[in-house]
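USER:
Make up one protein:

ASSISTANT:
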Amino acid sequence: MCLTILHPCASIDDIRNISAELGSDISLRCEIPHLPTNAVVTWVYRQRQEHSARNSPPTKWLPLYANSRRLTQNGLRFALDFTGYTAMGGHHTSILTINSLTNSDEGVYMCKSNHKHSKTVIFDVHVVAAMSIYPQDGIIELQQNDFWLNYPINFTCTIRNSNVNKKHLLWYHNNQEIRNNSLNHYHRHTTSSHTLIGYPQHTTDEARLTLIIRHLLANDSGAYTCKYKQITKQVNLVFTSDARV
């Protein structure tokens, strides 16, 4: 899980658009200056209007916290770190953390005080699909010796979100798409060294596609990118110079 600290917007007219992966943890940091020491800082939430039924009245704000006091039984994955007034910074600080984001957490979160003309902090949270590569993404350095050459290596890309369509899940090698020659779910051969294995999609919440590099050779080095619509993750195969091909 990743933990992202998100800073407040600069003014009441500025809404911060926040994108975070499904299943990740986020923290929304709210700092309100020029408040008395006994001020009350509250967090409220509502869905975006496009999520509401057409022609329905605007959704109401759901109270979440007043200072450190929880105001709802919903959102048990939520936690609040309220430090109150700090003399050094001259402001009240409140950090709302949402653990294991779900699609239902999307919406607008507002942090405000009970004093007029004080700063209001607004976060517009968007939950995006979560992508992972097994065994890992990033850089993989291999020694080009007899152990690796002519051995296969596998990478499995998994995408998680609502309404996932596996047809949009693709693999690329050095920006060239590894294409399928067959619509079969299994062993869709593409080149002499690359094989794609798709899996039956039993749920719309997850899809997987495995890339198998058979008989690993020096020209298999480079960037392997998994892509789902606008979401990408990459693994780079780097070989050392002591190859014997």
